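so my prof wants the structure for this chain in the tokens format not the other one, which i didnt know existed until like an hour ago. anyway here's the sequence
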Amino acid sequence: MKILAIDIGGSQFRTALATVSDAGLQFAPAVGRPLPPDCTKEKLFAMLEESIAESAPCGSYERIGVTIPGLADPAAGMWVYACFSGIRDVPIAKILSEKCGNKPVFIENDVNACALAERQFGIC
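here's what i got, hopefully its the right format
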């Protein structure tokens, strides 16, 4: 299975194509960009679209996984609030799904996602 992985942080973001197989999890080289200090959701989505086009052409993945800083409502696909930018109440899953051919999108707070990855894959 191929997944478009998006990691949005406080000062930068990265996109990459991940492949999940019996052999494990492998990532293609990531495309990253710094976030400007005055980042708005409009600027962020414009930069994300550009980065996604570079890292994973539409149709080359089946799902999208997004980690976000701040408060997330994974069940609703909402980015509730990010204190670094003031971004709030953004239906990020819906927006990305529509921009990427109606693929399923899963979101989670970046710290929670890191803890889940540690539980699943461990330090080794």
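also thought this was worth mentioning. Residues 2-121 form a domain with the Nucleotidyltransferase; domain 5 fold (CATH 3.30.420.40).
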